[in-house]
Design goal:
2 copies of one chain form a homodimer.
Chain A (H helix, E strand, L loop, with lengths): L1 H7 L3 H8 L7 H14 L5 H8 L4 E6 L5 H16 L3 E6 L4 H13 L4 E4 L11 H5 L3 E5 L9 E5 L1 H14 L5 E5 L5 H16 L9 E3 L4 H12 L7 E4 L2 H11 L7 E5 L13 E4 L2 H16 L8 E4 L2 E3 L9
Parallel strand pairs in A: 1-2, 1-3, 3-4, 4-5, 5-11, 6-7, 6-8, 8-9, 9-10
Antiparallel strand pairs in A: 10-12
The first copy, chain A, binds a DNA duplex (30 and 30 nucleotides) through helix 2 and helix 4.
DNA sequence: AGTGTGGTAGATAACGTTGTCACGTCGCTT
DNA sequence: AAGCGACGTGACAACGTTATCTACCACACT
């Protein structure tokens, strides 16, 4: 910038004015400056500009794992909103580890992002964000709520989703319905389990712990769970899988068994309709989740000062065949 | 930082020394400073620090669309390498639009990222990066090479991949093999088409333009292409789909038709093995692609000055049934 | 002629860090 | 006793911007 000013024979501030399109610069000056900029290939240093102005026009997105299609769809939506607002987006994955989440969130804050969209890791406590939020950072939580602080959150209707799945299976005559979900300390997993249990109980059926398996949905885990649920005098005839990973693991495992099981999965996934039978799912919309959270973040960034809110996004049951196998 | 210095009754520089763990600070001082930091909840301003030091410890990742599982796997790999090196990662999607790619890449450069990992948009020309690269930014291209400048690239063996697919189908007796790929101006699409053609010709078979359809793999496009290929006296008996989107579109369309077609898809995808028949694919490894590119970037960031290189990652044919349907 | 007034331009001080240098105080050697 | 090096410390400038303030000029108006 100094070089540009010298070459154009003008003051530093005039260059700044031209670069920022401020008014009251004579056309002759502006032209000289533009020529100098061109000649030197100058481009303004955004970091310095933002240091001076006190905001960075960046937001940070923290999720469990970008490579999971559910989260990558969410990330795409957040990114679009960010770009529409002229912001750049940092992305990082917590890998479901509270310490890593904290470290990355604080790294974002040290970079002075203006806002944060966070999918919390299981059993994270977000007290650590308190000073940052007091310092002006805006945090919006997605898919799972904040713990230990009051903050905006955008969640899916998890309870309603598994309730609907149970209703659907009951309607097709099933009375022994198993549930395989993610680790119980994960918010969504707990909520979905609750919907499953509540709907069973409300329907006058027993809630049988032995038909529930909560854990990281690895193939071995799912295999053992199915062995257990299918053994004994009253085996399950239907299954609810608590997320996309679990659904896929169940499908793989079931395909090696003689029994036919009715199945409803939580989370929609590509090709669910092409399998035979098509996989019925409780669909929720990661794009809506991400977009809503990002919109809320930017509303707050633009000065909106309403109370902390939790927005719930509807889920809907998509019947495709696997849940309609009758007893 | 000023406040901390005042509260601790020390100079600015001493605070800086404590924060950065520099030696030759007495333990008493350090303790006072740490107490003051704690009390004021001070955290250093990374932006200012980096302004001073001249590097940002950030890299930018530019891809076609984070929400595409292929690219999100790649993004996950790049992110991991970045984190391992203590860098933060900007992510953005070009949506296959050269102008948007350019705009985003330059936005990254204005933020003074230290490096760039780019999946180029179709028909982009990367001359625009020349001044940035001369200014010290390191750019590594993935999946598709740079155009108009010499730059490192990490590519998949696209030609070898479709060659293998053709060999596989020929071996099962097919002589009329169709090819449905992405738009011809996309590098990978063109390469894969070339592999298809070269292998046919080398095998002494004619290359028949009417069996080729190149375009954005929307359902209507694929439907029309299949109508065409299946009409006439010599319909295709086997098909190669040029990427994951095309493969899925073909599967959906074929499932509504009476004919049985042999199929090999390019790009592996989740559940390919669970369909019936399992979908044979030419698999390549987005994680390896991303990791290799990021590793190369960081090697250069650490001062490696070797010549511009192009690294090719092998592909491999995974037979699962759909390609083994015999004529 | 003196006085506003409006439009340009530049000098200077920040923003929050860190590198450089200079200063003072030890304790040790000669 | 003087000199020397090692250590601890802080003042200051610099990184590349922009906001504020002042200075200047030309023009029109009393």
């Amino acid at each position: 910038m100094n070089d540009v000013a010298r070459l154009a024979g003008v003051g530093l501030k005039t260059v700044s004015r031209v670069v920022n399109g401020e008014p009251r610069v004579s056309e002759a000056m502006a032209e000289r400056v533009r020529a100098a900029i061109e000649e030197l290939g100058y481009s303004p240093h955004e970091g310095a500009r933002l240091l001076r102005r006190g905001q960075t026009a960046c937001i940070g997105l923290l999720l469990e794992d970008v490579a999971n299609p559910f989260y990558s769809a969410l990330a795409g939506a957040v990114e679009q909103v960010a770009r529409a607002n002229g912001f750049l987006l940092f992305t990082a994955s917590s890998e479901e580890d509270a310490a890593q989440e904290r470290e990355l969130a604080l790294a974002f804050c040290a970079r002075r992002v203006d806002g944060l969209v966070i999918v919390p890791a299981a059993s994270a406590d977000h007290q650590y964000l308190k000073p940052e939020i007091e310092a002006g950072v805006i945090a919006v939580f997605v898919d799972r709520p904040a713990v230990g602080i009051a903050a905006d959150a955008v969640l899916a209707d998890n309870v309603g989703g598994t309730r609907a799945a149970v209703v659907h299976l009951l309607r097709h005559g099933h009375r022994r319905i198993g549930y395989i979900g993610d680790a119980a300390e994960i918010f969504t997993a707990a909520q979905r389990l609750r919907g499953y249990r509540d709907e069973l109980v409300d329907s006058g059926l027993p809630f049988d712990e032995s038909l529930v398996a909560m854990g990281h949905p690895e193939p071995q885990f799912v295999h053992a769970a199915l062995d257990r649920m299918l053994a004994g005098p009253e085996p399950v005839t239907a299954l609810i899988a608590g997320n996309n990973r679990a659904t896929v693991a169940v499908l793989r495992d079931v395909s090696t068994r003689p029994q036919q099981l009715a199945l409803v999965g939580f989370d929609d996934f590509e090709l669910a309709d092409l399998l035979n039978p098509g996989v019925s799912v409780v669909a929720h919309d990661p794009v809506a989740l991400g977009r809503t959270a990002a919109d809320l973040l930017f509303r707050r960034l633009q000065g909106y000062r309403g109370p902390v809110q939790t927005i719930e996004i509807a889920t809907r049951l998509v019947p495709r065949g696997s849940g309609e196998i009758s007893r």
